[in-house]
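Cross-check.
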Amino acid sequence: MRPKPETWPGRARRPRPGTGKHEGTRLDGRDSHLSERLQTGFLGVIAFGLILFLLVQARFILICLVLAIIIFSLTSDAISAFARLKVPNWLATTLALIAIAVGLLWAATAVVAQVNEVVSTSIVYADRAQAALARLSQRWGPNVQEAIGTFMGSIDFAGWIRSAAAQASNLISGSVLILTFVGFMFSERIWFPIKIERLTGDPDQARQVLETVHKIMRRVNRYLVVKAAISAVTAALIWTIFRVQGLDLAGAVAMLTFILNFIPTLGSIAATVITIAMVLAQTGDPAVTLTVGGLTVAVQFIIGNVFDPMLLGQTLRLSSFGIVLSLAFWGVVWGIAGTFLAVPIMVAIMIVCAQIPWLRPVAIMLSQEGLPEQEPPSGLRR
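Predicted model, tokenized:
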């Protein structure tokens, strides 16, 4: 039986009518789809670069704006509580603004006063610290003594002090800007739901947006209130230890401990190291330094590993690795202020991503148990 002409040796197979046309169309479709994906990715990289540039260049204004939003959120809950007590809205808002102004100015002046006190006594304590380290290093041999001397010489204490003083001086101007933002937010507070409804054009979608905003406010407010209480207890215990030992700068160390404890994990470590360094600088006595350092480590360890997870673990529901990444990113972008705001910003990002289908995987990765929408138990809500 003779083979068909198409299969004879040396004879090229002829394509079926229309096959080459369909194949070319399919290849063109793949190329266009790949080109669109590359273009989208390229535009995404450019947009991320522009956003990062704006975050860095306008960080002072943006940090003040974020702090104003947080203060507005906390105060809105207080105003709502007064409203349930039949207090007029205008009176509650006026009292809230007065309380915010007094609180911000008091906090700023207190921090500046403590920084000035540290700066004024830093020269004496620096000499004492160097002398104490010299005595300790003599017991470890000349090599260790030389290494410690080189290390201490490489540290620019004067530069750090000047930087801290400059940052503290910015608190006054920042407080005024925050107060201005909060005042305008309160003036437009009643129009916010109407603007959202007109912006979305759908009452159901507007209700969902407002519910998302309220969910962010609830979680962030509870985190800040509980964290402030825990930090205040820790600062009070450190202040008591300093007073019992008869050490100076008890108020400055306590305030520093209170502020740094808002930075997850790293803040308590930094506060402990600074506290031990201040004790060594003041006394120059290894025994007193070990005693106070041991008590400080015990306080930070018990509160940070027992009470902190017990009170905050069911509130945030954030991934520990995600918190570290958030600290690293916002610390690079906004400096020290970014490390304080990293957790509230991460909570807001997780809740927002959970409401957008194509960003839901991000919310799942940021959550602790893969359940970003799950609210804390009713007993833990405010």
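Residues 59-187 form one domain. DSSP finds 13 helices and no strands in the chain. Passed to J.P. for a second look.
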